[in-house]
Amino acid sequence: MLLVLLAVVVLGLGLGIAGSSWSTIVQRSKEQELFWRGDQIRKGIESFYSVKHGGAAGLFPNSLDDLVKDPRSANAIRHLRKVYLDPITGEDFVLIKEGGRIKGVKSASIKTPFRQEGFPEEYSAFEGASSYDQWEFVYQPPKAVKKSDTAPARSAGEADAESK
């Protein structure tokens, strides 16, 4: 009888350890999927913003559906294969908007990410994040270079050569 009880305890401990390992494996997999999906959406927003149709370039989409079929074009332009769900929560991503238009997405999850470093440069802000909702997949358009109205300054040697 004691042997059976001991076997049950050992089996229970083993299953408990296996269960926690399995949940870690599942969360790490979902975390990788979150990063991939968020990056795909950010790239889709970048593509939408960059494409010019009838003078409408430099606009963010109104909805994620606009990335699947660009409403600015009669042709089927796809900036994103499909609208993805947040793999951590299983629900829609939280939209990050500017002026009523979508410039990015993030998870609503407050779980702590396993990955804390080694992100690509555009995601360096993810390093040390305490929760997935701090991982913001946002497209930031490059700053426009302002053209100067004045001629470039000339060196003293150039000015002397012109006066001769």
Task: Domain count, please report it.
Answer: 1
Question: Major β-sheet, in short?
Answer: 3 strands, antiparallel
Number of helices: 3
Q: How much β-strand is present in the residues?
A: 5-15%
* pLDDT < 50 stretches: none
* Separation, N- and C-terminal Cα atoms: 113 Å
Structure characterization notes:
The chain is mostly helical. It has one domain (16-142). The protein has helices at residues 2-50, 65-68, 156-163, and strands spanning 94-98, 101-106, 136-138. The protein has a 3-stranded antiparallel beta sheet with strand order 1-2-3. The radius of gyration is 26 Å and the shape is elongated. The chain starts with a helix and ends with a helix. The mean pLDDT is 85.
Features:
mainly alpha; 164 residues; 3 strands; 37% helix; 3-stranded antiparallel sheet
Quick recap:
The chain has 164 residues and is mainly α.
Write the layout of secondary structure elements.
Layout: H1 2-50, H2 65-68, E1 94-98, E2 101-106, E3 136-138, H3 156-163
